[in-house]
Write a structure and sequence with these properties.
0% of the residues lie in helices and 43% in strands. With 148 residues, it is mainly β. A hairpin with a 3-residue loop joins β3 and β4. The strands form two sheets. Strands 3, 4, 5, 6, 7, 8, 9, 10 and 11 form a nine-stranded mixed sheet that branches.
Length: 148
C-alpha cells in the first residue's frame, strides 16, 4: 500500500491511500472468476434457465426456491440455483453445482462439487470429490444425511 501525503488549507494534512486495482472490492483482489461465468471466454449464450425443477436421466436442475428434494441421484449432474432449498440425493452423482443462496445439499458421493453461490452447504457421505469453492460463506464437508 502506498500513502500519499497532501497538504490542505489551514495546515491540516490529508492522507489518501492508493490501492492499485482494488476499487471498492476490498478483500476480493485474488478471487478467480470461474470458467464459463458470464463475460468469460467459456460463457455460453444459449443457456436457458428453466421455470421449474427439471429431472431427467442425465440432469437434475433445482430452481424452485424452498424446494425439498429427497431422491436417488443416479449419476446425474445436479445444479441447484434455488434459494433456501434442501436437497438430499442418495447414491452417486456426477457434477454437483450450488449457485443459489442458503441451500443445503447432501449427496451420497460426487465426482466434483462446485460452489458459486452464497451461504450454501454441501455434504458428501463418501468418496473424495474434486471441490471448487468460489462461493461466499459456503462450505463442503464430509458427512450429511444422504445414503451412499
Amino acid at each position: 500500500m502506498r500513502v500519499r501525503l497532501l497538504a490542505a488549507a489551514g495546515g491540516g494534512l490529508l492522507f489518501t491511500f492508493l490501492l492499485p486495482g482494488c476499487g471498492l472490492a476490498f478483500g476480493h483482489e485474488d478471487v478467480e472468476v470461474p470458467n464459463g461465468a458470464p463475460g468469460t471466454e467459456g460463457a455460453r449464450d444459449d443457456v436457458v434457465i428453466p421455470d421449474h425443477n427439471v429431472s431427467d436421466d442425465d440432469t437434475l436442475i433445482i430452481v424452485d426456491d424452498g424446494a425439498e428434494i429427497n431422491e436417488d441421484c443416479g449419476g446425474r449432474e445436479v445444479v441447484v440455483t434455488a434459494d433456501d432449498a434442501v436437497v438430499i440425493l442418495h447414491g452417486g452423482c456426477g457434477l454437483v453445482r450450488a449457485t443459489g443462496r442458503g441451500s443445503t445439499v447432501d449427496v451420497g458421493s460426487a465426482d466434483k462439487i462446485v460452489l458459486i453461490g452464497v451461504d450454501n452447504t454441501v455434504s458428501f457421505a463418501s468418496g473424495d470429490p474434486e471441490v471448487v469453492n468460489h462461493g461466499r460463506n459456503t462450505t463442503v464437508t464430509e458427512g450429511g444425511v444422504a445414503g451412499k
